[in-house]
Amino acid sequence: MRPAPAVALLAALAAAALLAHHLASVGVVALVLFAVCLRAPKERRRFYLIGTLVSAGALFVLTPFIETIGSHPIWTGPIVPVLGQLDVTHEELISAGINALRLASVGLAFAAYALLLDHDGLLQAVRFARPAALATRLMPTLERDAAGFVEALRGRGVELTGVRGRAVLLSPLLASALERGLNLAEAMEARGYGSTRRTSLPRPRWRAVDSAAVVLAAAIVTAGALWL
Amino acid sequence: MALARAERLTFAYPEARAPALRDVSLELEPGEVVAVLGPSGSGKSTLLRAFAGLVPHFHGGRFEGRVEVAGRDTRSVRPAELAGTVASVFQDPEEQIVLSLVIREIAFGLENVGTAPEEILSRAHEALAAVGSEHLADRAVAELSGGELQRVCLASAVALRPKLLLLDEPTSQLDPGSADAFIEHVAGLGIAVLVSDHRPRRILEHADRVVFLERGRVVLDTAVPAAKTWLGENRPAWLGAATNGRATVQAERVCRLDSVQFAYRAGLPVVDGVDLELHRGEIVVLVGANGTGKTTIAKLAAGLLTPDSGTADLRGRAGMLLQDPTRYSIRERADEEVAVGVHGDRARARKALGTLGLGGMEGRHPRDLSSGERERLALASVLVIDPDLLVLDEPTRGVDPQRKAELAQLLHAGSERRATLVVTHDEDFARAVADRSVLLGQETILV
To answer: Which of A90, B57, B158, B312 could pair with A72 in a Cys bridge, judged by C-beta atoms 3.0 to 4.6 Å apart?
Structure first.
């Protein structure tokens, strides 16, 4: 399958998760995307899966305390300044579940895009989006940079432990990304990027499976909006 | 008529205290191979960038004088429009790769310069074959070694069929065999080449002329035979070939790899059945072609990787210098960076910086240092922990011959306290430091 229809499918699944109203429907979409992500190599997918699941989990835990909907309280707590009375209702739990699964679906769709897709092919298909698509490759690059910093520290006998320990990498990672961006921009300019003479590598032929994927993507979004 | 010329070129980067180039005049004839030599920070990379139009277009700064390439004034033509006439390969291959598949990476430049679509793939394959890397065409760039990446970058440049090829340390990550093939190929292209390298012996065999820069000025511009005489008399370190010649006393064993196997991906071992012993007091150099697992063995010895099978026995503390010096920029001051490995002991850090010739740079940000200075900062960051096993992976990347000679002396001076394992493609440096060399072949180690 060409990368553009694959992106359409992933985007459709994420959109369906955002449009759907039933917990089970959003759950199924999230599960499908999770299964897709499992096709990526273990070492690489771990970072994305943990990030997505932790974010979704945090949203699930916090939402009931922030929302005030429903009339079937499961738990009633103390009154907290600014927030008011803390309580958790059945409706809030359902809403938190749906929102968490929506977030997970969007995160997993992005993870599948970053981990499994042929980005070069996508760049070729959507030329005007080259800078945006290059930007999405930032995550794997940051991942490699972080691993490089950790390895260099281990080579000096320093082990980073815990979230606080790893937080020291944030600033060098940002600086490294900026420096890399400048160097890459210079190399691209030297190789003619931005010139007016541009041509393009012939694209692979559009096949039936690509058409089917686009139709399926449209169907998923429609189903998400109308029935799920 | 000259293909390219610089006339009284003086250039200073924005906010720089001193110009990077001062009153440089130079002419390049079509088909001429010119070696640009000089210490770190002498302006070699800046000169190459001036001929690509990147100076001043990309970097800004103060530009005086004139640079012309193929009759076009670089001040009035954007670098992207010069691409195709000029092609560049920069020092760090990892920072010039744009796409994720090798064949598409090569095609990227061809697309930019308007190559006919039906020709793009054939020219990309042709360029890969020309640098001996046709087998890499469908590989992901993320899976390639540094040497393989360097060849992909050269192929990307060669594919453009430029009139002027600018090469900044093009063989720094290539094994000697590949570097020979690389330079022979470049010299045989029949195009003008301006090449800067800190391992000049190989370049001098193929160059027509040598330009030697110091503090931004051209101090020598002459044909190779006269240049060799001048270098021998005035800058002997640049002709290399110093040998170790010391007697070593081997003490206790510090590290032993026994039938070690390791694979990054199941079923594809990078090292298989490797045996290696390292003793206190000796400097062992690990050499071999690109992709034979030298870095992996070094990491196994230093304890950064754990073998899948076999045993890695390390007695004492290991310190390892990785290939990429940009990994040593966690802190915002050089002395704080070096002190990371010694619990923030800045006094020790300053001493280590002084030993590596970086005295006075304690307060500088690691990212503001030149590539050679960064390499030395990284080395100081490892040496400061005074390890029992010191592992250095390509420690002379971006380091000029004078500094290499000093590094060899430094390693010898402290060698009795530790075992030292050096992974390098730099034959002159290997000869200068090695008590013992280990040649890594396709599948086995030969001692």
So the answer is: A90
Of chain B, the end-to-end C-alpha distance in Å amounts to 54
Closest by CA to B218, choosing from B391, B44, B80, B66, is B44
Q: Token digits for B111?
A: 């697309």
Binary contact (B98, A179; C-beta < 8 A)? no
Nearest in space to B128 (alpha carbons), one of B159, B91, B173, B94 = B159
**Angle at CA of residue B356, ends B354 and B358, nearest 5°:** 55
CB contact under 8 A, B96 and A185: no
Distance, CA of B323 to CA of B395 (rounded, Å) = 7
Instruction: Provide the residue type at A172 as one letter.
Output: P
Rounded to two decimals, the ipTM of the complex is 0.79
Chain A contact for B81 (CB, 8 A cutoff) = yes
Total Cβ atoms within 10 A of residue B386: 16
Residue B433's identity, in one-letter code, is V
Q: State pLDDT tens for residues B225-244.
A: 999 999 989 988 888 655 66
pTM, full prediction? 0.75
CB contact under 8 A, A156 and B114: no
Q: Residue B444: what pLDDT? A: 42
Indicate yes or no: CB of B111 within 8 angstroms of CB of A198: yes
Q: Which of A155, A169, A179 sits opposite B302 (nearest CB)?
A: A155
CB of B252 within 8 Å of any CB in chain A? no
The continuous run of DSSP H or E covering A187 comes out as helix A170-190
The percent of residues in chain A predicted with pLDDT above 90, rounded, is 33
pLDDT digits (tens, 9 = 90+) for B333-375: 999 999 999 999 999 999 999 988 899 999 999 988 877 788 8
The answer to whether the CB of B194 falls within 8 A of the CB of B6 is: no
Give the chain A residue whose CA is nearest to the CA of B331.
Answer: A172
Instruction: Please state the length of chain A.
Output: 228
